[in-house]
# Entry
Amino acid sequence: MPARNDFLQTIESAQHGAVHDIGGSRIQSQEWDYIKEHFVKAFRNGRRPVLPEESLYDNNGLCLWSKIIYQHPYYQAADEIALFHEHGEEYADLIGNVGSIIDLGAGDTRKVAHFLWILDDRGSKATYYALDISAEFLSSNIDRLVSQQDPAYQNVRCLGLWGSFSDLDRELRGGDFRRPRLFLSLGSVLFNDDKERAIEILRMLARHMRREDSLLAGMDGHTLPDDRVKVLDSYDGERAPWYQFFHMGFKRLNEVIGEECFKMVDWNIHRDIEADPVKHQFTFEAKRDVKMATLGITFRKGDKFDWFDAHKYGPEDVKEMCQAAGLEVVKVYGIEGSRFYQYLIKKA
# Structure
């Protein structure tokens, strides 16, 4: 039997509601590395650069994001909650005596709360681990799970893991989890990339999954041409919350860079849906020349960068990516009037 690693020993003895740093304190340096190695190099090589999405998800950004996702016409959060209400009992039946629930990119935990109640009512002694890159936002959400319920969870234990997918990948290596695990990917997190990159992330997860483990993944399947208007409306960048969301991201980027490189007044925001693969995309176009001295680059008027892509994959695409990663979609779950789906996935 493999040795119990320090990570497992720490979290198994942790108190209900605790948050552990598994690499989150290094996130800012990782953002800086991305900006230098990807954003700047792409610009210098004549390609349209892409800003890191992590810069949108500090505490301020996540607090605003948690408001956006529950406002009409954004539909994904409401649909995913409805999926848990409609199918949660069946999920609980299928995953069996699960010991660990690992929520990849947990964000706002309101989506999973109902499912945890189902497990708690059944007497499950599972531990819910919420993984996220913002310590403050993670702590507040774990506190809400622990303290706001009346009565509080009697059986399910809730813990926070402050870090990234890569940090979790490292900590899970060699771990001896003795009971089945359920990995959660809510809000289109796991598949939200070009297929090649999404398959790479799925393969990383598949390396840790055993036959008795499961993955429950949500993915938005609204595509072109039928759902063009619905998708565009849900990402209405002209509305104040979205404008403020990107403003928060610029503020975070400037802190990481150490210079006020990004100001909303310098950029026009455009949005559209690309067809292959289907994804909604925000594009920022320079209104004037924008010099970024610390980065050693200057955006000329009309130059563009992309930020916050949102991919859309239907069931056939999800099954294809899972198969390529050594996984198998066991069942697809939906609700009436929506093409947002949840997938129960096992090791192939």
The CA atoms of residues 135 and 162 lie 6 Å apart. The mean pLDDT is 91. The chain is about 40% helix and 20% strand. The radius of gyration is 20 Å.
